[in-house]
Design goal:
Layout (H helix, E strand, L loop, with lengths): L3 E7 L4 E4 L5 E14 L5 E11 H10 L5 E14 L5 E14 L3 H14 L5 H8 L14
């Protein structure tokens, strides 16, 4: 089985090109933080070359930019080619088969705070009536849950 799952950040914007037949192909590098600290007490990162095709390449190019976090699933692929001097070269990369958008904790916190600001308190109308010293009747239908 050849299965890879990576959670990392884009090191630069995705480069999308098109084959002669019009198929989109995207190249990107993910910075993936290691889980163990080095001898200096710092986390190091691995820089993983990835390739994505078709709709995945176009979607990632449209919605992601340098520094954005992303979760990808795919497989490792090794290919060989000849460079401009005729030397045989090898490239190992992750072929992305699926991706998910991931937002950072800071972005999530900001989004939740904005949503809470915009939400109307379901008891606000009742509060005004009580403050106006009006009698109110509450039924099960008035409860927001």
């Amino acid at each position: 089985m050849n299965k890879v799952v990576l959670l990392g950040r884009l090191t630069k914007d995705i480069e999308v090109r098109y084959t002669e037949s019009g198929t989109a192909v995207g190249n990107l590098t993910l910075a993936v933080k290691r889980r163990i600290k080095n001898t200096d007490g710092e986390y190091e990162s691995d820089f993983i070359n990835c390739v994505c095709w078709k709709e995945t390449a176009e979607t990632m190019n449209k919605y992601l930019k340098k520094g954005d976090p992303v979760l990808v699933e795919g497989r490792i692929q090794t290919r060989n080619f000849e460079d401009k001097d005729g030397n045989k070269r090898y490239a190992t990369e992750v072929v992305i088969e699926h991706m998910d958008f991931v937002s950072s904790k800071k972005e999530q916190t900001t989004e939740v705070k904005e949503e809470l600001k915009e939400e109307k308190n379901p008891f606000e109308d009742m509060k005004e009536k009580v403050e106006a010293d009006q009698s109110i009747e509450i039924s099960d239908e008035d409860l927001p849950f």
